[in-house]
Amino acid sequence: MADDFFWYELMTPDQAASQAFYTKVVGWTAAAQNMDGHGNAYVVVSAGSRGVGGLLKLTDQMIAGGARPGWVGYIHVADVDAKVKSILDAGGTAPMPPMEIPGVGRMAMVADPGGAAFYVMTPKPPEGADPGPMPPAGTPGTCGWRELFSALGDKVAFDFYSAQFGWETVGEFDMGDEMGVYRLWGHDGEQLGGMMKKPDNIPVSMWNFYFTVEGIDAAVARINEAGGQVRMGPHEVPGGQWVVQGIDPQGASFALLSATK
Q1: What is the number of structural domains in the chain?
Q2: What is the CATH classification number for the domain harbouring 76?
């Protein structure tokens, strides 16, 4: 798990609406935790009995600071402060400096040199707390693919992440002069995602996460029934899997992945 994505968080202006949407579309269960004293809670979403992500309410202050609805991934690191320094030295930024959250861990929000945001975190759960192993790849509700759209292009972006986290190129697809190379990346021999040049219709560099479901057509029907929008797909990708990209009712981009149509 070290130096890989392990948690996925949705920043949303309406936790209740987002919870209703994603529990219907992805099939997660959800439970509110850690009340903050202002009537807000952090909602943990689970695949089976294992937490895989959370729903964080966007406050007025966060929105005033430029935050918008969207998914952000957490990368597990051994030393948050050292990693933030390394990212800054490599041309990245740290919109949120390292901070300690008792019973949760030490974390910081950073962005790569192209502007794509993510968190680095060293989890420190309470003594005796054991979330258990992550469900195996392909389990409904888990993240099955992690995709970077970068203003830097696939090669420069990959060089940054490879230097910071030891990720490896495991394949390349030439998508033509306009779209460039789709770079497959992984870690410790496992293929985990892709990187490509940011398309013109995506305003900023960003990570996009694909959550696993059973049957892409049924999932598309649930997206439409729950008030979301299909932005692209569904279509089959190399390897025989099916994907769809969408926008939830609060305006956050998301994607789904299935082994079957």
Answers
A1: 1
A2: 3.10.180.10
